[in-house]
Write a structure and sequence with these properties.
Length: 245
């Protein structure tokens, strides 16, 4: 399954801290996405966020954390996963001049390596506790297409029939913002068969620092007019919250 995008570069999107500002920002972003769709972006729309059967994994060593970061960024030993559609992924970036995380796409392995280096600096600043308090959360973001839209985007890639959904940079960052807003909303609405420690993560009351976050749009599943992509977040849990208890 391949998704292609036009390379429009715009300033990065972020979400405000206050709930009222979040709502208004989300409305503005959705209006911007509507304008992008009129310009030619595929009108792929965010539908909902779901947690799968095992959404939480404990990261128990620094080496494992580095491996997870390398995988998400498709660098180092995982560079073979960096196909053409890796440019659609949205990554949290902590560069040298950035006090707050920015969320952006990358367009080269050098940019992804720079994001990886920023994550390493952020890791050293946080000094994670690997005794059950570093957690990788994987949430599924579900997107839908209007009737008949998929047929308009059938394509052949490497001799195989697939779909090519053109989306501008602004549109992709808008989808990411919708995913993050839905994850925040899930903190007060999500129910499921979770352990006590997992419930604390779902509600975000057990979460301290966010070490890294990525929406991987280079690895999606498609069927029945819907697509799903994974939103990965690495949390450092607060004292008293531990996935081993």
């Amino acid at each position: 399954m391949q998704i292609y995008s036009r390379l429009f570069y715009v300033s990065d999107q972020c979400i405000g801290n206050r709930k009222e500002r979040d709502v208004e920002s989300l409305r503005d972003i959705k209006r911007a996405m509507e304008r992008e769709a009129k310009k030619g972006s595929c009108p792929l729309m965010f539908d909902r966020l779901e947690f799968g059967g095992k959404p939480f994994q404990t990261i128990t060593t620094e080496e494992k954390l580095d491996e997870v970061l390398a995988y998400l960024l498709r660098v180092r030993s995982f560079s073979q996963f960096a196909g053409k559609t890796v440019i659609n992924n949205v990554y949290m970036d902590m560069d040298l001049l950035c006090r707050k995380p920015e969320f952006k796409r990358t367009h080269s392995v050098m940019e992804r390596e720079r994001v990886y280096a920023g994550a390493q600096r952020h890791k050293k600043k946080i000094q994670p506790d690997y005794g059950g308090r570093v957690c990788l959360e994987t949430a599924q973001c579900i997107f839908t297409l209007p009737d008949g839209e998929a047929e308009r985007h059938r394509a052949v890639y490497d001799g195989q029939e697939t779909y090519a959904f053109p989306m501008s940079n602004k549109y992709i960052l808008g989808l990411f913002t919708c995913c993050v807003a839905a994850r925040k909303e899930a903190a007060s609405t999500q129910t499921g068969d979770f352990t006590g420690a997992e419930q604390g993560i779902v509600r975000l009351d057990g979460v301290g620092d966010v070490l890294f976050q990525a929406l991987l749009l280079d690895d999606v599943e498609y069927g029945g007019r819907r697509l799903s992509a994974n939103l990965h977040t690495i949390y450092c849990l607060k004292e008293g919250h531990n996935l081993w208890t």
